[in-house]
């Protein structure tokens, strides 16, 4: 009988315990893979947006944790747009806003509401060029003052809203003129309206939460040109001669410093370490019980000439097989669950289905660690058994 076959037969002798151990480990590993995958999808979605739109620099308020908590004077956007080295500027006011879900029944009725992501853009933002119009049309400068908006197709599906329908944001009615699809996950679940009227409505006149820009590249060293523009923007001053309180960074550095991405990743890793700990304890319990039940058998194997190293490899092999089976079940479960979550109306504008392959590989690697750590003590305990004592064990 081959050594691997012998290990598999040991596992199938207690099918219920083996199945429950695999199931328990798969829950831990699957939750770890799912959370790490969702965290990575957040970053990839934002990174892809910057890359596909050709963004060279991103500006937010100095010290802001993310764009939602940022507030920048719109005057700096106008000055940046006038710079000859700049090919285009996208300014936006992004915030979670209150959307009323129905009309009040009477003067004493308070309709239910929910939070929705609103992005207010200038009519000439280059981001419009990347939107696929599925119904209606794009916003234009002619829509100024008319309280009109576009919605992402996920928002349209979740709220059963289309072109010509109205939605109430901050207790003001907006008419939908277009439904779009973007390669950006968050834009597909948001409301897109014009900047000036939303500034008035939200009480944030002449303010944006951030801006991105493209740099004209005319030399063989584009990085130097981008850095030159960055330094010029940082040197801009307001009407009082004071520097603008703004941080200008390359997209990747902006993402590296984004607090919300750091928190998301940190939470995913915290859960991963908890899953690792639980997995090790579960594996340790299973393998200790397995060794105790087979003490006499292990003594016979030692008596017929099995060296201690072979006993260790047998027990560790069983632990690794259990771990790999759990990793396979957990990875499949994580992929299925994220796809199902992505279809849920409550989160499908914020979670993207699918798991990056390297995250799955990472999950398998951590499961190998679980198998080694959980099987190490039982393996060495089994190897230390003396044949005569093991055979007499009852």
Write a structural description:
The protein has 394 residues and is α+β, with helices and mostly antiparallel strands. It folds into 2 domains: 3-45 and 261-392, no CATH class; 57-249, no CATH class. Helices cover 52% and strands 18% of the residues. It contains 12 helices and 12 strands. It is elongated. The two termini are 27 Å apart. The mean pLDDT is 83.
Largest sheet: 6 strands, mixed, barrel
Q: Please, what is the average pLDDT? A: 83
Q: How do the helices and strands follow one another from N- to C-terminus?
A: HHEEHEEEEHEEEHEEHEHHHHHH
Low-confidence stretches: none
Any idea how many domains? 2
The Cα radius of gyration reads 29 Å
Cα(first) to Cα(last) distance is 27 Å
Query: What is the topology, as strand order, of the major beta sheet?
Result: 3-4-9-6-8-7
The tally of beta strands, per DSSP, is 12
Please specify the SSE layout and strand pairing:
Blueprint (H helix, E strand, L loop, with lengths): L2 H10 L2 H38 L4 E5 L10 E2 H8 L4 E15 L12 E9 L10 E5 L11 E5 H7 L6 E4 L2 E10 L9 E4 H8 L4 E2 L1 E6 L6 H13 L11 E4 L1 H7 L1 H35 L1 H9 L4 H36 L13 H27 L3 H6 L2
Parallel strand pairs: 4-9, 6-8
Antiparallel strand pairs: 1-11, 1-12, 2-10, 3-4, 3-7, 3-11, 5-8, 6-9, 7-8
Helix pairs in contact: 1-10, 2-8, 2-10, 2-11, 8-11, 10-11
Tell me briefly what this model is.
With 394 residues, the chain is an alpha+beta fold. It has helices at 3-12, 15-52, 74-81, 153-159, 195-202, 222-234, 251-257, 259-293, 295-303, 308-343, 357-383, 387-392; strands spanning 57-61, 72-73, 86-100, 113-121, 132-136, 148-152, 166-169, 172-181, 191-194, 207-208, 210-215, 246-249.
